[in-house]
Design goal:
Oligomer: single chain
Order of helices and strands: HHHHEE
Shape: flat
Distance between the termini: 22 Å
Number of helices: 4
Length: 86
């Protein structure tokens, strides 16, 4: 909770955190390298290979979906849904 509060202060509000990329947060928290994989542009076998490699190397994995604007509910072709409380 303290880390979330610090991020909210840095970004101006808790609501501003909703629209941030988790890769950015992981970078700030760990100082390590981050890689973003766009599901629409990645073959399933390549994606699973990346996931397994990350797990074998004990890397942190994050996932998110992006919303066009607050309150918009979207479901992508792969079944992931974006939902906003607003």
């Amino acid at each position: 909770m303290l880390v979330q509060k610090a991020f909210a202060k840095a970004y101006g509000s808790y609501q501003a955190l909703m629209y941030q990329n988790p890769a950015k947060a992981l970078y700030h928290l760990t100082g390590g390298e981050v890689e973003t994989v766009i599901l629409k542009k990645c073959r399933k076998d390549v994606l699973w290979s990346k996931i397994l490699q990350c797990l074998n190397d004990n890397w942190i994995i994050g996932a998110s979906t992006y919303m066009d604007s607050p309150g918009i509910h979207m479901v992508s072709q792969n079944g992931l849904a974006s939902v906003s409380d607003e």
